[in-house]
TrEMBL record:
The keyword Nucleus does not apply. Residues 201-269 form the Phosphogluconate dehydrogenase NAD-binding putative C-terminal domain. This is DUF1932 domain-containing protein. InterPro entries: 6-PGluconate_DH-like_C_sf, 6PGD_dom2, 6PGDH_NADP-bd, HIBADH-related_NP60_sf, NAD(P)-bd_dom_sf, Pgluconate_DH_NAD-bd_C. GO terms for molecular function: NADP binding; oxidoreductase activity. The lineage of its organism: Bacteria, Pseudomonadati, Pseudomonadota, Gammaproteobacteria, Oceanospirillales. Residues 9-152 form the 6-phosphogluconate dehydrogenase NADP-binding domain. The keyword Oxidoreductase applies. Keywords: Oxidoreductase. PANTHER family: CYTOKINE-LIKE NUCLEAR FACTOR N-PAC, OXIDOREDUCTASE GLYR1-RELATED.
């Protein structure tokens, strides 16, 4: 367990998740909160610095500065950058520090990261985020697994976070997350395909009404808007996560992966340039159809 002292917490990556967590966590036991995001090294530097300042977080110009003296390191990057980030952190992290790997990765990716962090003398924790970070923020449910998960749960509870231990080695929590994402992100892709096809064919309202009649209270049209907003805003990150899902499915021997198509749908909407609003699926769908150069289906005229 951590000693009774003020701690330095460093976020690796400072996107939506890190911002949501830090906005409501109990910082009374923290001496310093820092962040290093690769965007600070490019054209978005001013934006990153302004965002950090808004959350009273010290924005660091490089990884060595961010990790100096940090005894809690929280990795919140995209899935494809999770292992590379762990490799870089392993070169600099202080012995005995906690490395909270909060990225949506396959179990074998987490296990590889665990190895390099452990070899550096730090304590690796597999963290799986089990719901959207907004609006729950610090109360977003998390699963922890690995040797140091119980100690990490105590630490996160002190920060007023919502963490539960999932007994088992590193990768246990992530396996749950990956299989869950097959459904969650896959449903998003199905919603996108259904909604765009419905708009093209001019039958979207009838389709959603029929679905609502079959499954009352699911609010199909509202969910369509929400899912399109999520995909256009976070589709690239979701695509990277689903690539990890596909790698896990390969490891399990699952053939004919629908998740591979989910990757393409997520990425395509992310790259569309459309900024969908969750309260208006029809406008979002029409803007996506324009971006994809798709025109409404012209029904053939049947002459008597």
């Amino acid at each position: 367990m951590l000693h009774d002292q003020a701690h330095t917490l460093t976020f690796i990556g400072f996107g939506e998740a890190a911002q949501a967590f830090v906005s409501r966590m109990d910082r009374s036991g923290l001496d310093t909160v820092r962040a290093f995001d690769l965007k600070v090294m490019g054209e978005q530097r001013a934006d990153v610095m302004a965002t950090c300042a808004a959350y009273d977080v010290e924005c660091c110009d490089d990884l060595p500065t961010a990790l100096k003296g940090a005894d809690i390191v929280w990795s919140v990057v995209t899935a494809d950058q999770a292992y590379p980030a762990a490799l870089e952190v392993a070169e600099l992290i202080q012995a005995g520090a906690f490395f909270l790997d909060c990225n949506s990765c396959a179990p074998h990716t987490k296990q590889a990261a665990d190895q390099v962090i452990t070899e550096a003398g730090a304590h690796y924790v597999d963290v799986a985020v089990m719901s959207p970070v907004l609006p729950a923020r610090n109360k977003t449910p998390m699963l922890l697994s690995g040797e140091y998960s119980t100690v990490a749960q105590t630490l996160l509870t002190q920060l007023n976070m919502n963490a539960t231990v999932e007994p088992g080695p590193v990768g246990t929590a992530s396996a749950i997350k990956m299989v869950r994402s097959i459904m969650v992100k896959g449903m998003e892709a199905l919603f996108a395909e259904c909604t765009l096809a419905g708009r093209l064919a001019g039958v979207d309202q009838q389709v959603f009404a029929s679905l609502e009649a079959s499954t009352p209270g699911y609010h199909w049209a509202k969910r369509a808007g929400y899912n399109l907003e999520r995909m256009t805003l976070h589709g690239e990150r979701r695509a990277a996560e689903m690539e990890e899902v596909c790698a896990f499915l390969d490891h399990l021997g699952i053939p004919e992966k629908l998740s591979a198509t989910t990757v393409r749908w997520q990425r395509r909407l992310a790259e569309s340039g459309v900024k969908a609003r969750e309260d208006d699926y029809a406008t979002a769908a029409d803007e996506l159809l324009d971006a994809f150069a798709l025109k409404p289906y012209e029904r053939p005229v049947i002459k008597p």
